[in-house]
């Protein structure tokens, strides 16, 4: 009787109390909940991810690049103190921005900012002249300038930006549809987090096409991922 009694006591001592088990479970649940809330908040207000569907930004961005976009950086600030303390700033020349197209609000576009409000832009021989000075654009390959249309000089209006693709021969941009209204800008592209060499990319795929594309990625992830581009800073 004594040995059996001692065994029961030992087992009781070894097993953690139910209250402690519940406490551990509650801690895990709270941690997961906080993480989920943070991810939802970050995705809604700070970051978004996007995929490059076309070659209009080659060679800076390739078809199949998956990028991170900072949605917070251009948010308006109420006071000078907020502007000093928070990591926010105005759009700058050379920024690569993601925006809603004014003719297709449901579609996200990505281009480089060439002109700010008040800038005078001229186009000769495939080159851009801003306020009389020819731009030094090492990100634009020489082959991508050939055939670039020459359009009349423009002055960027207030609260607008003039944006262009780095592949000047293959980009629908401000040369075609005018300056971009500032309120359509969603954020600044800053990072390629993954890149996959897609065979037949679809710019606006249906759900079935998306499932097929993700199946293709799962099968060929090791052979067709462009690992050297992963986590590249976008400039």
Walk me through the topology:
Blueprint: H1 2-14, H2 18-46, E1 47-51, E2 65-70, H3 80-85, E3 96-100, E4 108-115, E5 120-124, E6 127-130, E7 133-134, E8 154-155, E9 160-164, H4 174-177, E10 180-181, E11 185-195, H5 207-224, E12 232-233
Antiparallel strand pairs: 1-2, 2-11, 3-4, 3-11, 4-9, 5-6, 5-8, 6-7, 9-10, 11-12
What are the secondary-structure elements, in order, as H or E? HHEEHEEEEEEEHEEHE
The total beta strand count reads: 12
Q: Into which percentage range does the β-strand content fall?
A: 15-25%
CATH class: Mainly Beta
> Which secondary-structure class do the elements indicate?
alpha+beta
Instruction: Summarize the biggest pleated sheet.
Output: 8 strands, antiparallel
Architecture per CATH nomenclature, i.e. the level-2 architecture: Ribbon
C-alpha termini separation: 79 Å
Unreliable segments of 5+ consecutive residues: none
Q: Helicity level, as a percent range?
A: 25-40%
Give the number of domains.
1
Per the CATH scheme, the topology name is: Umud Fragment, subunit A
What integer value in Å does the Rg equal? Answer: 26 Å
| Average of pLDDT | 81
CATH superfamily: Umud Fragment, subunit A
Number of helices: 5
**What is the overall silhouette?**
globular
């Amino acid at each position: 009787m004594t040995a059996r009694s001692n065994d029961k006591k030992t087992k009781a001592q070894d097993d953690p109390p139910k209250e402690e088990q519940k406490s551990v479970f509650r801690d895990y649940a709270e941690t997961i909940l906080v993480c989920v809330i943070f991810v939802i908040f970050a995705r809604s207000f700070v970051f978004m991810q996007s995929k490059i569907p076309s070659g209009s930004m080659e060679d800076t961005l390739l078809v199949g690049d998956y990028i991170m976009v900072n949605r917070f950086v251009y948010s308006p600030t109420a006071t000078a103190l907020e502007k000093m303390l928070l990591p926010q700033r105005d759009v700058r020349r050379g920024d690569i921005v993601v925006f809603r197209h004014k003719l297709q609000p449901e579609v996200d576009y990505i281009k480089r900012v060439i002109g700010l409000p008040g800038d005078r832009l001229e186009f000769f021989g495939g080159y851009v002249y801003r306020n009389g000075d020819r731009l030094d654009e090492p990100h634009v390959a020489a082959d991508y300038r050939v055939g670039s249309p020459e359009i009349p000089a423009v002055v960027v209006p207030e609260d607008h930006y003039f944006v262009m693709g780095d592949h000047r021969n293959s980009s629908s941009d401000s040369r075609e549809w005018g300056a971009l209204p500032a309120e359509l800008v969603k954020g600044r592209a800053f990072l390629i987090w993954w890149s996959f060499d897609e065979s037949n990319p679809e710019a606006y795929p249906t759900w079935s096409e998306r499932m097929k594309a993700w199946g293709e990625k799962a099968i060929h992830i090791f052979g067709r991922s462009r690992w050297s581009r992963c986590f590249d800073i976008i400039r």
